[in-house]
Each structure stands twice: as structure tokens, then as C-alpha cells.
Amino acid sequence: MLKDIFVSTVRVKLLKILLPQSDSEFHVRALVRSVGTEINAVRRELTRLQKIGLLKRRPSGNKVYYKVNTHSVYYPELLSLVSKEMGLGKAIIENAKALGDIKFAVLSKAYSRGRQSSMLDIDLLIIGDVNLTVLEKIIKDEESKTGREVHYTVLSEEEFLYRKRKNDNFITSVLAQSRTMLLGDEEAFCKLS
């Protein structure tokens, strides 16, 4: 999907590598190997991304390193797009029908950034009538690919509404965290009462 929106496939590949690992620095040659294209194409795209403020450049001796600028105005939206294009987000979107009647599927931005969540954090919240067998297979596949545990919660719409009206601490913390809407409308999710 991103390659249909963005003209440059090299840029899309770079975004898929860099954005989920925003805490890491990448050497140009390592990015060239990961992307699998010529160095000039990678340098050109890195320069473009740096010019719009999405990347920071740090020379060190004769090497150049790039890191995501998480304060960039473009970062949150691009991270959301990438989260829908790969990994758990992509699996949820692609399997939406098989998962059942889902009103909302919400992925935490912390999970999208590759951060390990604590037991208090929620990586994925799904609201609706969900086929748990399909969901558990998706979760197991993701955990085996990434080596990270996925903390998820499934609630019926009625239970979500009830807990939201009661100002349940868990629901309040989920609503307060930064997120990517995989399925459903963000405004409807926040207004639901």
C-alpha cells in the first residue's frame, strides 16, 4: 500500500526499516544492504528525508549515521502507516473478516516503535465480537517472528462502554496512550459512550 502512495520504493523500504526502530542509529552501508539497492539511491532518499526533518544525520569520521527524528511533525503519521503495512498491524487488517465483527482494533505506538511493553501496557486492544482462535494464531505468529510478547485485550462493545462510563483505570490508560487505529474510526473510538 505504501508503495502505491509513495513514488520511491527505496524510500518506502527505508521508512519500514527506520521508523519502527526510532531509538537506533543506522550506518549508510547497513541501510544499503538492508534495502538491497545501490548506494546513491539510498543516499538520495536519506537526504530527502533529512531535508523534511524526519531524519537526523550524524557524521563520525568517514562514516555517516542516520536516526529518526521523533519530534518531526511527520513521524507519528508515517509510523502509523508503516504499522499498518507490516507485522501485527498488517496481520490484523488482512484478517479483519476472519477475526469477526470488529468495531475497533487499536495498536499502541510504543509497540510500533519496537519497545518492550510491561504488564501494565497494552499493545493491542480489539473491541467487538472476535474469533479468538484466529486472533490467537495471529498473536502467536507475531510473537514467534519478533521474539516479543504481545499484550492484548479483547472486549465486547458493551463491556468497553460500561468500563468507559465507570472511568475504569485500564480503559482510561488505553485512551490516554498514543495509538494507531488499525480498524475503526479514531473519533468514534474516543466519543463512544
From TrEMBL:
GO molecular function terms attached to this record: DNA-binding transcription factor activity; nucleotidyltransferase activity
Entries under InterPro entries matching the protein: ArsR-like_HTH (IPR011991), HTH_ArsR_DNA-bd_dom (IPR001845), Polymerase_NTP_transf_dom (IPR002934), WH-like_DNA-bd_sf (IPR036388), WH_DNA-bd_sf (IPR036390)
SMART domains linked: HTH_ARSR
Listed PROSITE patterns: HTH_ARSR_2
Segments forming domain HTH arsR-type: 1-90
Protein name per the record: ArsR family transcriptional regulator
